[in-house]
Amino acid sequence: NKEFEVYYQPQISTKTEKMEGAEALVRWNKAENRIFPNEFIPIFEKNYFIIKLDEYVFEKVCENIQEMKTQFKDIPKISVNISKESLVDRNFLEKYEKIMKKYDIMPEEIELEITEGSTVNNDIDIQKILNKIKQKRFSIAIDDFGTGYSSLNMLEMMPIDTLKIDKSFIDRIDINEEKAILIEVIMFISKKLNLKTVAEGVETIEQVNYLKRWNCDLIQGYVYQKPLRFEELKKYIKGDKI
Ligand code: C2E
Ligand code: CA
Ligand code: CA
User: Ligand 1: does its nearest atom lie under 6 Å from the Cβ of 6?
Assistant: First the structure.
């Protein structure tokens, strides 16, 4: 019924202050109500409807990238959330590649976000799946990093490009900088392993300054922008006030 809409939240570079990426986030507009993903994604993951929804969001993203390319010279790299259920689905890669072909999208234009929790699995070889994705030249981000129960050697074994530092770590910056020590540790590991870092849920300028000091690459959060409708995203790229 066209009730699902894809929003985009800008990711700002700490070096250039420009938008270099954006994360696609789905919204459910049901009649007068807007339902947020935290309410329905966990249910959709249980009944596997998430496989259809992730695919739908991915197709919308491809369609939107194609449109942006006709209008702008530089467009942000779009990251898309992929639930574990979608990732381990047998036809995952084939289906997504077919969609990309339809809109003439290259894997370099997209980053796939999987949560840290998705990397832990005893039954299915996630590493093998990620290697296959990597071979196709997609970039892979680990979402909610630091909240799951994966071991640190996951970082060496999996073909990862980006770490997204979970908001719970960012929140500690204001309380007491000493409490934010884990961010420094994560930044240190990322640099050593040559991973890009994105800080999520950044709300204050103090947090921005702290993250700049520790050379975090990208900042995503209300301090810069909330998630925007596609029409608003295009205005934002143009530099119009929104
Ligand atoms: P996430 O991937 O960790 O996305 C970040 C969430 O933090 C988003 O919530 C975003 O709106 C919110 N956020 C961003 N900046 C700030 C900030 O400064 N302060 C605060 N308080 N929040 C901020 P959202 O859009 O409600 O999405 C919630 C979760 O639902 C996402 O968490 C993601 O795990 C999931 N999700 C969203 N869209 C999709 C999708 O298309 N597929 C799948 N599988 N999951 C999705
Ligand atoms: Ca995400
Ligand atoms: Ca996250």
Answer: no
